[in-house]
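Anyone able to model this chain together with GLP?
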Amino acid sequence: MRIYKAKDYAELSRRAANIVSAHVIIKPNCVLGLATGSSPIGIYKQLIEWYKKGDLSFAEVSTVNLDEYYGLPKSHDQSYDYFMKSNFFNHIDIDHNKINIPNGLAEDVEVECTRYNQLISSFNGVDLQLLGMGNNGHIGFNEPGRAFELGTHLVELAPTTIEANARFFKNADEVPKKALTMGIKNIMSAQKILLVVSGESKAEALKNAFQGPVTPEVPASILQLHPNVTLVADEAALSKFEI
Ligand code: GLP
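re: yes, here you go
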């Protein structure tokens, strides 16, 4: 694993954005696996800036997002579809037909999960999968204790995740209790993984993920077994890490 230690969130975002943009420049039709949450927002802002300067084009890029809340319409301002459009897609030249996000309103969840798994397989491993990490070590919405071998599936969110994400809703009651997420199996099929972690609240989970055992209790720990992981984290997130 390659580790970049950034002094703060701004430096972290710039460093990680550099890695994403390098992929797009080297392979203009690359497939990017994308994430939501507060961690990647700075990366998206930086990429938008470079696009607007004319340094970068996403015209041929395809994207596949990690997850989506179950039961929220796309128009809801906390749906991940809405998040991706407002924080990234609506500000760049991406072809909206090349954007893929699980359908949180799918009538038949099984059919939707199969569709998403087939889509990911058809890409033959996304070129670069961007990941954040929850306070409890979750990646995508793969919560602690879930099996590592799952593909895309419907998940019950952990109480800690509902609590953590309540800051984006009016209150915890409004946070959806379920989500569709790529499974660990899908995530591990990526050619390369870029994990961004910021803030002291993630320090313990980050240490456990890379300096503890590989266990479903810490979903991100599976990344120890991926051959090509880059971690970009700020000093606060790395404060418990023994380098
Ligand atoms: C959500 C998302 C994850 C994300 C996590 C951390 O639960 N499903 O993909 O990594 O939140 O979010 P944040 O970056 O806001 O801490």
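The chain has seven helices and ten strands.
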